[in-house]
Amino acid sequence: MAPEQGARKRKAITRDSPESDEVVLSDGGEDFEVPLPNGNQSEDELNEDEGDSSDLFEDESDIEDDEELEDELDSDEIPSDDEENAKNLERGEQSTHSRDIKGELNGGPATNYKITEDANGNVRFLYNEIDPVYDSDDSDAPATTNTIGNIPLSFYDSYPHIGYDINGRKISRPAQGEALDALLDSIEIPKGWTGLTDPATGKPLELSQQELEVLKRIQMNEVPEENYDPYPATIEYFTSKTEQMPLSAAPEPKRRFIPSKHEAKRVMKIVRAIREGRILPYKPPSEEEEDDPDVKRYDIWANEAPKPDHPMNIPAPKLPPPGYEESYHPPPEYLPDKNEKKAWEEADEEDRDRESLPTNHDSLRKVPGYNKFIKEKFERCLDLYLAPRVRRSKLNIDPESLLPKLPSPEELRPFPTSCYTIFRGHEARVRSLAIDPSGSFVASGGDDGMVRIWQLFTGHQIWSVKLSKEEAVNAVRWRPGTDAVILAAATGEDVYLIAPPMSENDIDPELHVKSRELVDAGWGYAANGASGKAKKEPATQWVRPGSSLQDKGVLVKFSLRKTVKVIAWHRRGEYFSTVSPQGQSSAVAIHTLSKHLTQLPFRKLKGLAQSAQFHPSKPIFFVATQRMIRSYDLSRQELIKIIQPGARWISSFDVHPGGDNLIVGSYDKRLLWHDLELSVRPYKTLRYHQKAIRAVKFHPGGLPLFADASDDGSLQIFHGKVVSDMMENASIVPLKVLKGHQIKKELGVLDVDWHPTEPWCVSAGADGTCRLWA
Amino acid sequence: MSDQTLSNSAGDTGDSASTSQVRIQLSTRHPDIALPENPGPILVNTNLRRYALSTLVNALLQSEKPIPFEFLINGTFLRTTLDQYLTANGISAEITLNVEYVRAIIPPVYLASFQHDEWVSSVDVLSKTSPAAIWAGNAGTKVPGQERILSGCYDGLLRVWNMSSEVIATSPSADEGGAHSAILAAKFISPTQIASSGLDRTVRTWEYSEDADGFSASITPKLELHGHKMAVNSLAVHHPSSRILSTSQDHSIRFWSTKKSEAPPTPENLLPSTSFKSSKRQKTGSSPTTATRGSLSELKSHTGQVSDTIFAPNDHTVAYSSSWDHTVKTWDLPSSRCIDTRSTSAALFSLTALPSLNLLAAGSVARHITLIDPRASATTVSAMTLRGHSNAVVSLAVDPQNSYGLVSGSHDGTCRVWDVRSGTSGNEGKVGHSLYCIERESAKGRGKIAAGEGVKVFSVCWDSDVGIVSGSEDKRMQINRGKGIVGEQPS
């Protein structure tokens, strides 16, 4: 009754017929989930319905199967997703179900119990054993209903069915998807239709749009309330912006600074455990290698029985038997000779190639006891104690190889090596000397107030003049350039310009006239200048010396305020500078030869001026004070650089003809090489003299040489090559110490000068001699 | 006597088993002492020394008077026994030694010193065999013993000495018209002509006339040659063409004529009278007038002082010059052009020619003498280096009798005698060492003198009759001669 009702109900649904309302209503309480397509309960019901329906159409012919199917489908308002198998399954279930029902129907009247009497005489029902027929409903049984066996389904492509079930009925081909879709499209269901009756009104229950949405939300496991936002935007309690000032000015609590007692307790607990050995801080690595049981080892020499000689039979290696060398009485050819013995004894124990030397004893009786016995025993003891012994590690480094590679002086020839000429004549110290630009003469000035000119190699004195009776001649310098022969000499505060005749009673007219003209050219200018701008008092007045001096060729004289110690010419011969260390503001003076003009460029100089030099190619002027050398740009009149040699008292310096390097000699025995491009600090410090360095000089004519003169009576010649490559540093090699000057009153060599082109130098000594070295 | 025994022992073919013997092949480059017939290899004892070999050669030559010989083996003179030589050089005694024998240069012994007032800068000799005499036709001007020695001195005076160390002539002093401030070079042009030059930039020629008795003579100024701008270092003279070459510190060489008519007049600006006036000048201005002349040409291409010059020995139109700029230049005089330049390693101070070897010897500041092949075909600049001096070599003279001989004067105060055949080949090329070293008599007993101070030799001259004459800073002219070298005995 009920299945039929269900089927009808379904039909009613499809056809929208409101029949048997009560039933529907009664079912509606249970089956509220009608819209759910796959609810289990409903499915079961449906299946049952189907089964019933199939039962109903049991007698219909096979051909009508399609219709039956259509009917079925008609009755099914749910679009089924199931595939063919699902259909088959359903079918199988239907069939079994139907059989069950049949069985029940057949066996219904037969009783399965006997009525007996029990001990009390009461009725007792004795039930039969339930016979679990194999056919009974067995949900576990496989649902295979198609009995066609293991053949491809394609064999049935041409038939409307796809096989046969266990009862030999055709299994019809399930409906295709398109048919279902078409059917569903034809059905129009009003929105909100439930198929239920509202019990309050008795009218069909229709859900409003709002209610449908609530349902949908419940279905989706959402909060049914409308517009509920499960993820609202965070409202921050604090602003995310960093405040400049803390909101709270409360000081950090003390507990943050004191160590936690609780933690200390916990740490102590761990420490105690470590101490007691309950916790091992680390696991010691297992030292012994595990024997790999898979690798099998054999001792092939375990049994040393003699075997015949065969390549497969390798005898165990043995120590060689002692030879003749170990014999107590070796043959004489094994005995070491004297040299071998000595070499062996001198070698260190580790280096010896053999442990003992063969020694000859006439008989075994004379072999002495083993003299190393005690020592070896002792060492064995040390080994047992695991006493470490210091191993002497030998350094086999040739100390020579650690020295930097310098080219040997032999490769750097030519340079002066010996004294060639001694110029004797000065009665006291020779303070200064210079070789003339043509390289033929030497001019020297000394404490006797004389200026002398010598022939370079013969040492013949060509000319001399006495400039001063009391004062020493402190500086003599030739004017550069071969167009004229002019000598500047300084005695005391006076500076003289001399055009010396090159021989006693004859004068080279051309050269000499030229020289005189050059020196005298300034007279007119000086006169004009003085009258023109008389506002500024000139630093000094250039005057003619006495007539006796004029006859000797001394043409101009002027005086500075303090003793002039150094004269340096500009390379063009137009300017020269003088340095008088004691004269405060007039310490450094620059003189213009053609104008007879003296200028004092420095109003105030820090420190005592020691020396001054012109740059060989640029308008730069170097002034050395006791500790610093300052370079000034003459054209812009500003300080360029302060060079700090680090010497305590600079005695002299010289600029390399290239202009980028400087050597500085100091009274504290140091010779310092400066690379002006590199640093204001010295590139190299040479400390080879025992006493103060008095003078330093670069070779002016392109040879990579420089020399210094020291109070220890020696000159030192160095090779100092400057390369134009910026990446390479200057190479400085000491070449030669030239000794010969005697030390007089702690003074040795006072000045040095180079020949303009050749590797020859001259030196002025405190012993009253000048020397030529070549 | 000893000759005989030695030659016997030499001729013996090894009956003395104790001493080993070596085969030697004697040869010489001098035809006058060549062996009459080639004796072939001679077997001699290895314990022979030079003297024994010399007697052997004399015996073979059958000369009446024994000639001392030196023996050259592989370029070195034999100074030890043959045995020691062989062991020192690692030569087997079984090979035949090629032994060259040459006339020995007898060690020159000191003969005399002539005292001067000042440093002696230059010396020259007039003898029968001196170039000046040969040019003059060798007209028997000087008999042996009548040689004249010319010296130039730093006091500006020329002196002519006879062999008895007497001054027979002195040039007039500065007051009297002889005007050198210091003489740097002086030479006989001919037996009657002298050329000199000095610090005063001039070259002067002088008439030299001797009295008949030979005990007095006079030097009178003849020509004053102006042109150099600085001191004139050295002179070379060639009488047949009456030409003088002079070198100066002003880097130039000037070419002059000794004939008044040939020489151009002096450029006006060079005359002393036009130069600057000074008190000194007025003194010399009052001197008796001497004819002045200018130079024929100026040879300019040196870049340093020109230290020395010579005429080519066989061609007076070619000259060689040495300079401080390290070069030796060859000049073609008629065109005044520099033909060839040979560069050496150091400044050169002196020059002389070894004609038979086509070599120039140049003394350098680097204490050695370089032998230079001036011919254009020569590939190497330095054929040989003679080492031994300890200061600059400033003067050179060739041995008049031995074309391989040379004497050099140096600032170290010694003269050294060299034979260019003797030398060893090292890695610096062939290096020769001196045979003898002549020291200054004035330096005897002074020990080693640093830098040759006070004894610098400035000039050296070698004459076959007189010997080696050297002038020095010790104000003396010293004569050394190897006794018995020459054929004629000195009187």
Global structural class of chain B: mainly beta
What is the mean pLDDT of chain B? 82
Q: Could you tell me the mean pLDDT of chain A?
A: 78
Helix content of chain B: under 10%
Uncertain segments of chain B are: 1-17, 273-287, 485-491
How much of the sequence lies in strands of chain B comes to 35-45%
The helix tally of chain A amounts to 14
* N- and C-termini, Cα separation of chain B: 29 Å
What is the number of E strands of chain B?
36
Oligomer: heterodimer
Q: What Rg of chain B do the Cα atoms give?
A: 25 Å
Largest sheet of chain B: 6 strands, mixed
Most extensive contact: A-B, 37 and 46 residues
**Distance from first to last alpha carbon of chain A:** 147 Å
Sheet bearing the most strands of chain A, described? 4 strands, antiparallel
Indicate the overall shape of chain A: elongated
Give the radius of gyration of chain A.
64 Å
What class, by secondary structure content of chain A?
alpha+beta
Number of strands of chain A: 34
WD repeats (chain B): 225-266, 299-341, 386-428
Subunit structure (chain B): Component of the NOP7 complex, composed of ERB1, NOP7 and YTM1. Within the NOP7 complex ERB1 appears to interact directly with NOP7 and YTM1. The NOP7 complex also associates with the 66S pre-ribosome.
Function (chain B): Component of the NOP7 complex, which is required for maturation of the 25S and 5.8S ribosomal RNAs and formation of the 60S ribosome.
Domain NLE (chain B): 22-86
